[in-house]
Amino acid sequence: MAQDVRQQLRSHMPVTAKYAYFDHAAVGPLPTEAAQAIQDYAQTASQHGDVHWLDWSAGVQNLRQQAASLLNASPDEITLVNNTTGGLNLIAEALPWQPGDNVVVPANEFPSNYLPWKNLERLGVELRAIPVPPSGEISLKSVSDTMDSRTRLLAISWVGFSSGYRLDVGSMVELAHARDCLVMLDAIQGLGAFPIDVQETQIDFVCADGHKWMLGPEGAGLLYIRAAHLERLRPMGLGWGSLAAGAFEPGSAKLKTTAARYEGGSANMPGLLGFGGSLGLLCRLGCHLRESPIAQAILENVQQLEGKLLSAGFELSLPTRSDQRSGIVGITWGASAPVPESTLIAARQMGLEQGVVTSVRGGRLRASTHAYNDIQDIDRLVDVLKAARKKLSS
């Protein structure tokens, strides 16, 4: 199944005509469906103005349903956001904090899952950091040891943006809930690549922009809010879009009873329609299934990268266990001393010149592989890195 899905998804990815693309942990390329949805919107809007606005709105509601199916949630629990940062800030500002409360986050978090909680210090909320080793592994014990009776929220990334370490979300939620603590999951490095079931894990909040592994455009994402928590959150960003059906008149304050109440103003219509195109494609290929062929194809690619790069003498930052791996592989060749970042950037540039796309993060060259990458892509990456190492080490 993984091989079938690899070939099917690849046929929808125009980027493959030129590039061996290994930068999905930064910004993923658009599949044909996403690009076409955006082009159709632009053409219709230029020729007809808002005459077809209801059709666009129906497309956005279809995206809400797709996002709910992706997570095994109710559409009423999905609010569409501009980005992960916006969703994290929404939860940070909407929860009812008290002076002396604390939030626990890993010490190696991406700034978007650090600054919103740091900003709560103005309200007397303490920010606590979980110690994280270079491997990126976050143990249940380290989380538990950082928490206390005043911990109200664990804010954590499903996949480390630099290490690629993938959490066991269910175990983290179980630990937090036993301590009467909520869990906010930054899922941007996991959704689209690996399945997650919010009913099975009982997680409280999940947020992700669509522009990485879900292959959507930038500026269109999703936020899941468990229905039981909706009324405990302070209303935020209110506007006409927050109002219940039939309440669209001056002076009305009757809000929607769903998570869509947080969509107060006009939407990023072309971005959301494009996101619907990419997410619909991934869901048709089974990215939400427990035994996801998308996830299987990604892990097979990681295994291929591991074997070929180790055989070529590279050093990898990669979890040993497959259930802790993601699509992210950290690569370097410094046997006795770290490779300077300037050298890694030069290696990345050499790759770009050969049509091989990667990033540099955490003192390593980061290759992030999706399900449509094939063995030819992998061989191109390995060959480019061998050539770069030879040239830059001389």
TrEMBL record:
Q: Provide the alphabetized UniProt keywords.
A: Pyridoxal phosphate, Transferase
Read off the lineage from the record. Answer: Bacteria, Pseudomonadati, Planctomycetota, Planctomycetia, Pirellulales
Q: Where is the Aminotransferase class V domain?
A: 21-381
- EC no.? 2.8.1.7
Question: Under which main EC class is this enzyme filed?
Answer: transferase
Q: Which InterPro entries match?
A: Aminotrans_V_dom, PyrdxlP-dep_Trfase, PyrdxlP-dep_Trfase_major, PyrdxlP-dep_Trfase_small
In alphabetical order, the GO MF annotations are:
cysteine desulfurase activity
Q: What is this protein called?
A: Cysteine desulfurase
- Classification via Pfam families: Aminotran_5
